[in-house]
Amino acid sequence: MEPALPLPPSEQLTGPHSGPRLVNVHQAKTQLSRLIDDAHAGETIVLAKAGKPWARLMPLASPPPQRVPGRLRSQGPLGDPVVLLKPMEADELASWEDSPLISAAPNT
After folding, report:
1. Is the predicted pLDDT of residue 70 greater than 80, yes or no?
2. Which burial class, exposed, middle or buried, applies to 24 when counting CB atoms under 10 A from its CB (0-12, 13-18, 19+)?
3. What is the mean pLDDT of the chain?
4. Higher-scoring residue by pLDDT: 93, 6
5. Residue 52: phi, psi to the nearest 5?
6. Residues 84, 77: Cα–Cα separation, whole Å
7. What is the CA radius of gyration of the chain?
8. Would you state the pLDDT for residue 63?
9. Is it the case that residue 33 has pLDDT exceeding 90?
10. Are strands 21-24 and 52-57 parallel, antiparallel or unpaired?
11. Domains located in the chain, CATH noted
């Protein structure tokens, strides 16, 4: 990949926190590949039409991590799966029903 060329003075903003770079549409057409690379690197670029902000070119959000089936397989099988189907004792059920997690849930 080629190193990025220096920006023309019309595209350079001053100051450490000057915000997104403003690029007019004509410049964006001629430098689209470089602008896409800059956006992918984390920069936000505002495209301007007649000097007014018109569109934003920015990096995509990272996709959520993929679920990995069998990830806990190394932990071994569940000792007694029938335990999951047994009814709770009254005091354990009461502690669940009094939990803020249950009371915050919407009524169905």
Report:
1. yes
2. middle
3. 80
4. 93
5. -110, 135
6. 14
7. 28
8. 83
9. yes
10. unpaired
11. 1-60 (3.40.1620), 79-103 (no CATH)
Cα 23–Cα 5–Cα 27 angle in degrees, nearest 5: 25
pLDDT at 17: 47
What is the SS3 assignment for the chain?
Answer: CCCCCCCCCCCCCCCCCCCCEEEEHHHHHHCHHHHHHHHHCCCCEEEEECCEEEEEECCCCCCCCCCCCCCCHHHCCCCCHHHHHCCCCHHHHHHHHCCHHHHCCCCC
Residues listed for the chain: 108
pLDDT surpassing 90 at residue 24 = yes
Share of the chain above pLDDT 70, in %: 77
How far apart CA 21 and CA 94 sit, in angstroms, is 58
- CB within 8 Å of 24: residues ≥ 6 apart: 47, 48, 49, 51
